[in-house]
Amino acid sequence: MRRICTTVNIEASSQDVWEILADLNEYQTWNPFIVRVFGKPQPGEKLDVRLKVASLSFDLKPMVLIAEINREIRWRGYFLVKGLFDGEHLFRIEEMEDGSVHFINCEKFTGVLVPLFMYLIKKDTENGFNAMNEQLKKMAEKRKANRES
């Protein structure tokens, strides 16, 4: 098992972050890493996801495991066949005492091809996670500012 995890602090509420994160069908308008998602963030829901890692795109059909409002979305999928290169993705929103948010964007990989694929995708995947995190931060902080003005 291997993990790729990134984090970002966001000066917005968990609700601001959740509203952007849970609107999966809008990812195509803002997300540079997860460039398309069809489906709903509900446990048991099968999603249609397109990831862009560097110059490559991958289509996956993960199943939502957890969707806890203002807190977490988690899904699990696999590449080609279960057991080769499987991934469990986690978006976690942790509310801080000052009302801001610590956002965690993490993937846990399992399967026989993990050692080979991790070598190939680790850096580009981290870069993609960080780019997504920064866009989420920008949008949530703008949403907060608009609400307060």
Which helices and strands occur, and which strands form pairs?
Elements: E1 2-10, H1 14-21, H2 27-30, E2 34-38, E3 48-53, E4 56-60, E5 63-68, E6 72-78, E7 86-95, E8 101-110, H3 114-148
Antiparallel strand pairs: 1-8, 2-3, 3-4, 5-6, 6-7, 7-8
Helix pairs in contact: 1-3
Structure description:
- β7 and β8 form a beta hairpin.
- The protein is globular and about 50 Å long.
- The chain has helices at 14-21, 27-30, 114-148; strands at residues 2-10, 34-38, 48-53, 56-60, 63-68, 72-78, 86-95, 101-110.
- The mean pLDDT is 92.
- 27% of the residues are buried.
- The chain has a five-stranded antiparallel beta sheet, with helices on one face. Strands 2-3-4 form a three-stranded antiparallel beta sheet.
- It is an alpha+beta fold and 149 residues long.
- It is 32% helix and 39% strand.
- The chain contains three helices and eight strands; from the N terminus they run βααβββββββα.
Structure keywords:
alpha+beta; three-stranded antiparallel β-sheet; about 150 residues; 3 helices; about 30% helix
